[in-house]
C-alpha cells in the first residue's frame, strides 16, 4: 500500500512538515530503535517490522522522502 492509499484508508489528517522536519523525525526513530529507516522500511514491506506504535508514521515519512512527495505546503500566489 502506498502513501496515498494509506491517507485514504486511515483518513490521515494533512500534515505540513518540511523535509528537514521529516528527516529529523526519521533520525529520532533510528536512534530510538537502533535501526536505519531503510532497514526498517524493508522489514515493514515484508511484514517483519518491529511491532511499535510508530511503525505506520515511520513508513509514511520514509516513503514521502523516497518518492519525492511534497512535504511542504504550496506557496500562495498573489
Account of the 3D structure:
The protein has about 80 residues and is mostly helical. It has a domain at about 15-65. It has four helices and no strands. The protein has helices spanning about 5-10, 20-35, 35-45, 55-65. The protein is globular, with a radius of gyration of 13 Å.
Annotation keywords:
single chain; 78 residues; mainly alpha; 4 helices; 58% helix; 0% strand; globular
Give the low-confidence spans.
Answer: none
| Content of β-strand | under 5%
Q: How many distinct helices? A: 4
What is the global morphology?
globular
Structural class: mainly alpha
> End-to-end span in angstroms?
37 Å
How helix-rich are the residues, as a percent range? 55-70%
**Number of strand segments:** 0
Question: What's this model, at a glance?
Answer:
The protein is mostly helical. It is built from four helices and no strands.
What is the secondary structure topology, with strand pairs?
Blueprint: H1 3-10, H2 19-33, H3 37-46, H4 55-66
Amino acid at each position: 500500500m502506498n502513501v496515498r492509499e494509506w491517507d485514504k484508508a486511515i483518513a490521515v489528517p494533512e500534515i505540513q512538515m518540511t523535509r528537514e522536519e521529516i528527516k529529523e523525525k526519521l533520525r529520532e526513530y533510528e536512534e530510538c530503535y537502533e535501526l536505519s529507516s531503510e532497514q526498517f522500511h524493508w522489514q515493514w514491506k515484508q511484514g517483519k517490522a518491529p511491532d511499535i506504535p510508530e511503525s505506520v508514521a515511520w513508513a509514511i515519512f520514509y516513503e514521502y522522502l523516497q518518492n519525492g512527495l511534497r512535504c511542504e505546503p504550496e506557496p500562495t500566489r498573489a
